[in-house]
Amino acid sequence: MLNPLSLAYMGDSILDTYVRKYIILKIKGKPNRLHQLSKQYVSAKGQAYVLNVLLEEDFFDEEELAIIKRGRNAKSYTKAKNTDIQTYRKSSAIEAVIGYLYLNDETERLELLINKMIEITEERVNTNG
């Protein structure tokens, strides 16, 4: 089993790639506008919010919940940028699940998770403006 922070590192990259693809195909705007939009989907605050929603919905299976717990409890030696440590740890937890699914070639489950994350983020953004 890989270190949860290594899984989160991989998951961060995968999420960013999926979100960029989604935004480019949806918006077709200039890079600065695309970047501003993508931040809503990949920010630690946004990821922590999505994790809370998915946990309330019992979205994750037992194995994914174990990854979330390991990812959330992992001791990172980097400082959280623009957020508190709890939010940073929650975002690392969901990124760890993404990394885990990607590295285990669980593409269908990975895409289901990322699509749910995008859906929840869009609902939050549209509700909060």
From TrEMBL:
The active site is at D12. Pfam families: Ribonuclease_3 (PF00636). Gene3D superfamilies: Ribonuclease III domain. Keywords: Cytoplasm, Endonuclease, Hydrolase, Magnesium, Nuclease, Ribosome biogenesis, RNA-binding, rRNA processing, rRNA-binding. Its cofactor is Mg(2+). It is an enzyme of class 3 (hydrolase). It is found in: Cytoplasm. Residues 1-123 form the RNase III domain. Its main location: cytoplasm. InterPro entries: Mini3_fam, RNase_III_dom, RNase_III_sf. Its EC number is 3.1.26.-. PANTHER family: MINI-RIBONUCLEASE 3. Homodimer. Involved in correct processing of both the 5' and 3' ends of 23S rRNA precursor. Processes 30S rRNA precursor transcript even in absence of ribonuclease 3 (Rnc); Rnc processes 30S rRNA into smaller rRNA precursors. Belongs to the MrnC RNase family. This is Mini-ribonuclease 3. It comes from Mammaliicoccus lentus (Staphylococcus lentus). The gene is mrnC.
